[in-house]
Amino acid sequence: MANNTTEATREVRATAKYVRVTPRKARAVIDLIRGKSVAAAFDILHFCDRAVAVDIEKVLRSAVANAENNNGMRASDLVVVRCYADEGPTLKRIRPRAKGSASRILKRTSHITVVVAPGKEA
Predict the structure, then answer these.
(1) Pick from 32, 68, 109, 117: CA 20 to 30 A from residue 84's CA?
(2) What is the domain count for the chain?
(3) The pTM is what?
(4) Is residue 53 in some structural domain?
(5) pLDDT confidence of residue 6
(6) Predicted pLDDT at 121
(7) Buried b or exposed e, range 76-109, using 16+ CB within 10 angstroms
(8) 25 inside domain
């Protein structure tokens, strides 16, 4: 592999796997912080009233810590360049229904990824 020092190699990521929230609900909050500076993203997540905002804030804190400790970047210069919620495994449960039948309950999980890189806010 070539030794490239492009913008893509300066990206730092953090992932939270098996988060017990549906990807659709997570994407509603993730869309709010994409392209924002890290400070603005923390403010948005802190005042967001969705429960998944706490989990996304933890992943963002981890990505910033990875950038500072492993790559020597400054947190004030970082921007959320990419963030997404992929679908994780679904837990299948059964709920009893009338007349001896049953309904399936799908408890969905997510894999939340946040990628930060130095740059200016979009």
Answers:
(1) 68
(2) 1
(3) 0.86
(4) yes
(5) 45
(6) 64
(7) eebbbbebbbeebeeeeeeeeeeeeeeeeeeebb
(8) yes
State how far the Cα of 97 lies from the Cα of 86, in Å rounded to an integer: 31
Q: How far apart are CA 77 and CA 74, in angstroms?
A: 6
Residue 91 tokens read as 């837990």
DSSP string, the chain: ------GGGG-EEEEEEEESS-HHHHHHHHHHHTTSBHHHHHHHHHH--STHHHHHHHHHHHHHHHHHHHH---GGGEEEEEEEEEE-PPEEEEEE-GGG-EEEEEE--EEEEEEEEES---
Q: What is the pLDDT at residue 119?
A: 85
Query: Is the residue at 95 inside a domain?
Result: yes
Sites in the chain below the pLDDT cut of 50: 1-6
In a domain, 3, yes or no: no
What tokens appear for 77 in the block? 């210069």
Sign of CA dihedral 67, 72, 76, 78: negative
